[in-house]
Design brief:
With about 70 residues, the protein is an all-alpha fold. Helix content is about 80%, strand content about 0%. The chain has three helices and no strands.
């Protein structure tokens, strides 16, 4: 029973850490997360070529603060 409680406590700490990281995320980190997600999705065939192009352009716009 003690092992289960320790594991649960560890999970709570990890969750609070990730939420803290998310709360303190900068715009550059956010763009990085989106870029990584898009890359993974494309590698697994979840995005079409058209989707990938649109996501790439959207990321460029956000990253370089361009106007549409």
């Amino acid at each position: 029973m003690k092992n289960l409680k320790e594991k649960t406590n560890k999970e709570v700490v990890e969750q609070s850490t990730i939420f803290k990281q998310a709360q303190e995320m900068t715009i550059n980190q956010a763009v990085g997360v989106l870029a990584q997600t898009a890359t993974i999705a494309q590698k697994h065939g979840i995005l079409t070529v058209n989707d990938a192009v649109l996501v790439a352009r959207a990321l460029e716009m956000v990253k370089y603060n361009e106007k549409a």
